[in-house]
Amino acid sequence: MAVTVMTKIIGHRGAAGIALENTRESLLAAIKCGVDVVELDTHLTADDHLVVIHDPTTQRIAPITVTVRSKTLAELQTIKLNNGQTLLSLDEALDVIGSVPVIIELKSHRSVDELLLVLARHPDVKASVASFLHSELRKVRSALPNIPIYVLEHFSPLEIIQSARRLHATGFGLNKGLINPLTYRLAKRYNLEMYVYSVNNSFMAWFMRLLYPDLDLCTDHPERLVKSRRVAKKR
């Protein structure tokens, strides 16, 4: 029996399993795969620009290691990454992504002022905001009452329900190992959207869709999940 496919496929850090995460190459790869949403990470630079990078340093993605917060955007963009490209500002990333919906994860405190400026320069962007920093999400909700926001949580799949409700969040994101029937049912009761990360195996994606039909899937390998979804639809 075929499973009704309702889930969105979210490209994690662009398409981190295909190309170097959070780079132009990775974002374009995700879009080419046909994702429903692109997810990316941001940190603040020394001159308070938002730059697209997951870690607070360049250690994993570049031949040299610098701390993002200690360098200006211009200084950071002189560094050649492991794929020969350079770090993108959030402005540049949104230009690359264009009309594809995007989840912007805030990883630095005091990011919201700059985020508001960037979003004002991109009025047509279909942006949502996610963060483990609930104080940042509170500021986003206050400044932009209508923008979708997603609470992230490392450890507690039940506390996240209360956190999402307190923040008037659209939904939440969890590690795939934390999703469970109770959290799923509570989310449905309170009309909270849900996504899990990172689901990189087509069978796992099928199984999670079977258990949790309204659960969106964030993946490093969108080419696999998009393909498996097409197969499921044909059935």
Low-confidence stretches: 1-5
Biggest sheet overview: 8 strands, parallel, barrel
Write the CATH homologous superfamily. Phosphatidylinositol (PI) phosphodiesterase
Question: Residue share in helices?
Answer: 25-40%
Query: Count of DSSP helices?
Result: 9
What does this structure look like?
- The protein is α/β, with parallel strands linked by helices and 235 residues long.
- It has one domain: Alpha-Beta Barrel (TIM Barrel), CATH 3.20.20.190.
- The chain is 35% helix and 19% strand.
- The protein has helices at residues 24-33, 73-76, 90-97, 112-121, 134-143, 159-166, 181-189, 202-211, 222-234, and strands at 9-11, 37-44, 50-52, 102-106, 127-131, 149-153, 171-175, 193-197, 215-219.
- The chain has an 8-stranded parallel beta barrel, surrounded by 7 helices.
- Strand 6, helix 6 and strand 7 (171-175) form a beta-alpha-beta unit.
- The N and C termini lie close together (9 Å).
- 43% of the residues are buried.
- Mean pLDDT is 95; it is low at 1-5.
